[in-house]
């Protein structure tokens, strides 16, 4: 047994409530991503990325990318089969960088393969980076409170406000207690439901698993990586699928904030959500037909949604609004009396 699995088993068996600490740590990470994905979905639906909250949105995207890096580093540390081969696949992506790629990979490994030196580097980063994440979260909240939260209706919220206590405080407490209830169910009754069973097999560099899959919250981006046959373009596509969120304040051409009164955009939003879950499913399947072809189509739609669908829907809705309001304005102007000259 490798030293990492030995230490994990020692923590779970010999430390008082060590098993609970480990399962809480693992399952809270999954719940963290569930809440963040819901938060991003809400932001896309209600247009929270529009000015003057573009900086808040940009910091949130950086937090998402950093979260994924921290989660990946933590997933490698148990050093099971999925940890070893997941680390091998993901770190090998850096070899696609021209000229220095392979040297950069060996620098990260601390050798010529994933080994104890790699785990030492990953453990250090897994411990330090959450402090950077906490600082970014504080910056996110500061920029949010500078202009306040956006109104779900997409209108000004400078009037008719209600106090934080007791209304929103008790509303949030309901969500918090529900979260504790669900977390307790997972920790005490199905602690490994959100993980992969192969990660309890000690890492074996001589035996490749039948299917290498990351944790569930990284599956959509892993599917995008696999659907692009070129290695360098696959890496660019995977990173671009996250960083393209930064362009939403520019890509959304609509004059109306949010999708509450935009039926075309509402349909497009739910089509995007469906595509995201489809990519998540495809990322968990073997790299074979028909999953390869469907994954390529889903990847094309993912990027087309940002680059084509969102701008075109905004332009169409703006045009329809102009057509709907112009006759009324013209009729109102024609019916108004013309002042006579003195």
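Sequence proposed for the structure above (342 residues):
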């Amino acid at each position: 047994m490798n030293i990492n699995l030995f230490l994990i088993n020692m923590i779970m068996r010999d430390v008082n409530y060590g098993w609970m600490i480990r399962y809480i740590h693992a399952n809270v990470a999954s719940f963290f991503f569930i809440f963040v994905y819901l938060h991003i979905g809400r932001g896309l639906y209600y247009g929270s990325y529009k000015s003057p909250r573009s900086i808040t949105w940009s910091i949130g995207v950086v937090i998402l990318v950093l979260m994924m890096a921290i989660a990946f580093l933590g997933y490698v540390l148990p050093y099971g089969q999925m940890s070893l081969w997941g680390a091998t696949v993901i770190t090998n992506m850096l070899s696609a960088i021209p000229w220095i790629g392979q040297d950069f990979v060996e620098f990260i490994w601390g050798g010529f393969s994933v080994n104890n030196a790699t785990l030492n580097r990953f453990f250090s980063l897994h411990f330090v980076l959450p402090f950077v994440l906490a600082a970014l979260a504080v910056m996110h909240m500061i920029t949010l409170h500078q202009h306040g939260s956006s109104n779900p209706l997409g209108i000004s919220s400078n009037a008719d406000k209600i106090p934080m206590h007791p209304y929103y405080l008790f509303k949030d407490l309901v969500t918090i207690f529900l979260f504790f209830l669900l977390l307790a169910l997972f920790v005490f009754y199905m602690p490994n439901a959100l993980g992969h069973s192969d990660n309890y097999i000690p890492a074996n560099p001589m035996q490749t698993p039948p299917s290498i899959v990351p944790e569930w919250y990284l599956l959509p981006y892993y599917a995008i990586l696999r659907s692009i046959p070129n290695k360098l373009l696959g890496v660019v596509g995977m990173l671009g699928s996250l960083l393209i969120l930064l362009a939403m304040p520019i890509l959304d051409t609509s004059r109306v904030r949010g999708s509450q009164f935009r039926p075309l955009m509402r349909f497009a939003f739910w089509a995007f959500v469906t595509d995201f879950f489809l990519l998540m499913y495809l990322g968990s399947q073997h790299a074979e037909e028909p999953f390869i072809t469907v994954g390529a189509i889903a990847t094309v739609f993912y990027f087309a949604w940002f680059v084509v669908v969102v701008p075109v829907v905004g332009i169409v809705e703006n045009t329809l609004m102009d057509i709907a309001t112009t006759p009324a304005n013209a009729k109102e102007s024609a019916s108004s009396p013309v002042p006579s000259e003195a």
